[in-house]
What we know:
By secondary structure, the protein is of the alpha+beta class.
Amino acid sequence: xxxxxxxxxxxxxxxxxxxxxLELACKHLNDAYGGFGxxxxxxxxxxxxxxxxxxxxILEDKQFRREFPNVQDFSTGLFEFDTKWLLHTVALSxxxxxxxxxxxxxxxxxxxxxxxxxxxTRHPHGLRFANRRRR
Length: 135
């Protein structure tokens, strides 16, 4: 099959308008938390029969420590048992689901953890574009 006749690979298997709703909701999360922002990862990027939409908010390591001060060492993944982290994760998963109508699996991860443990494809969501005046 030539390049011209090969079927085009989908960027995401999340349908419209839900993906637009997700984009808008992630803008709010990115504004609130900063960091590197929200990314869609996992099966919704790979196949049409995904079970849920995995959304991860990646924070700089220092910022993650400030946000979750009881987490002593996030290199082991034990931060997923921190009460504040669990509250954020559960509440924001439900909020994103309510905003989008999608089954959302939301997590907040420190940059080092995300890069070491999850090197797969990430699609950024909630981006803001700045207008530049041409001179």
